[in-house]
Task: inverse folding
């Protein structure tokens, strides 16, 4: 049974009609006292509750009720309803344990989708037998370590739902592969999977890239352009490097994630889409929320489920499997013979620190195969191609910077790193500990051309 708590008679009637037509059993009450009577006695499966009641416009009564509900029924998912202007109330509710929030006026399809997701993800009732082990199409995900297995178990459980997912982890840990696996194992698998690198989109082009534009909407709009959200309709949109998005763009993104409605630049007609959102970042978004560089309401909207990927140094038992996988793919892609590894080669690879994670291992294996051109590689072959990242400057290098300004030191460091990684910007950004977007800004600042 779904419990509706709202003091507006029209809202209660609308929700009851919608839920019963969708096949749910539902009950509606007007306020906190009646709600707690139902919660204590009938144990609803899900609760839809307003945050503002007639006796209180501050939301305190709604927050108090939420805390009481979670005290009596901690496992029951609660979806909050609030006006857009009171969205901060919903954020406070999420902190207090709410499952999700939706703004009024709501979209019926979006609300039903969130209800379905909440029921799918809520823990089974006591005594309910566990279902069979979930199957998962891994794609190119390789490994059998405990950390990776736990991640894949979560992917298998949440992929069939419509839950928004935030994938976190260091650069090079395979966040995009996890996003692809979520889509491939979802009910949207036959629909588009649209990747967006938010770190590579400037603030001025954000709306055009994400929502599209009509011809003539601005000076350079010489033709109509379909935005990424419209391209992802009925499928999944993957928002990579979401931590690099500036605050003004975060507001625009939150709007479309809230009700899946947007306006194309140059066209005032609102357009609706049905997309699942998977985001990824190597940034600490919780810290950014505390520093007011990432919106808290957007943070709660994108991470209904969080999946954290372990660094490669935390799953070393997977390194031989990954090395074999990359070698086989290299041979297939370039028409090469199969390359084998000696025992000391695998031991050498398994002991490296890998600040660049799986991406660093992949590049090392592929580079060594191409340069060595041997049927069996040993430790010496890999050692010759290994390019360790300096944890800190040596005394000699530090001395070379004497008398230079901070900007000159930064420019020289970028040039040296570009040289070390042969202009591979992904590796350069990882080596410098910054995002690709931040690297682009510095290249522009210092007038550095990668081709040079």
Result:
């Amino acid at each position: 049974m779904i419990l509706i708590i709202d003091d507006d008679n029209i809202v209660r009637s609308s929700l009851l009609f919608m839920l019963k037509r969708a096949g749910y059993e539902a009950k509606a009450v007007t306020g906190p006292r009646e709600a707690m009577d139902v919660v204590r006695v009938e144990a609803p499966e899900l609760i839809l509750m307003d945050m503002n009641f007639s006796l209180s416009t501050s939301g305190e009564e709604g927050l108090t009720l939420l805390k009481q509900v979670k005290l009596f029924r901690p496992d029951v998912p609660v979806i909050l309803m609030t006006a857009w202007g009171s969205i901060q109330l919903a954020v406070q509710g999420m902190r207090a344990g709410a499952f999700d929030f939706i703004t009024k006026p709501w979209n019926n399809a979006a609300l039903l989708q969130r209800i379905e997701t909440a029921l799918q993800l809520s823990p089974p009732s006591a005594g309910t037998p566990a279902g069979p082990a979930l199957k998962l199409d891994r794609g190119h995900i390789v490994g059998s370590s405990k950390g990776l297995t736990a991640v894949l178990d979560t992917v298998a459980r949440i992929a069939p739902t419509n839950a928004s997912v935030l994938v976190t982890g260091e650069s090079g840990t395979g966040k995009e592969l996890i996003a692809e696996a979520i889509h491939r194992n979802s009910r949207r698998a036959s629909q588009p999977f649209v990747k967006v690198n938010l770190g590579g989109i400037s603030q001025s082009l954000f709306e055009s890239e994400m929502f599209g534009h009509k011809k003539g909407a601005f000076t350079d709009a010489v033709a109509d352009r379909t935005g990424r959200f419209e391209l992802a309709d009925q499928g999944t949109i993957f928002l990579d490097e979401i931590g690099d998005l500036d605050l003004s763009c975060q507001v625009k993104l939150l709007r479309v994630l809230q009700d899946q409605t947007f306006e194309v630049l140059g066209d005032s007609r609102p357009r609706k889409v049905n997309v699942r959102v998977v985001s990824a970042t190597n940034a600490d978004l919780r810290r950014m929320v505390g520093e007011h560089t990432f919106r808290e309401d957007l943070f709660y909207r994108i991470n209904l489920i969080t999946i954290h990927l372990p660094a490669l140094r935390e799953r070393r038992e997977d390194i031989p499997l990954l090395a074999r996988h990359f070698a086989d793919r290299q041979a297939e892609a370039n028409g090469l013979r199969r390359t084998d590894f000696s025992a000391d080669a695998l031991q050498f690879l398994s002991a490296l620190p890998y600040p660049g994670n799986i991406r660093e291992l992949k590049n090392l294996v592929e580079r060594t195969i191409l340069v060595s051109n041997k049927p069996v590689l040993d430790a010496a072959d890999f050692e010759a191609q290994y390019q360790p990242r300096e944890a800190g400057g040596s005394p000699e290098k530090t001395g070379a910077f004497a008398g230079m300004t901070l900007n000159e030191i930064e420019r020289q460091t970028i040039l040296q790193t570009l040289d070390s990684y042969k202009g591979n910007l992904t590796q350069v950004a990882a080596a410098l500990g910054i995002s690709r977007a931040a690297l682009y800004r510095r290249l522009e600042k210092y007038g550095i051309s990668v081709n040079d």
User: Anything to note?
Assistant: The mean pLDDT is 86.
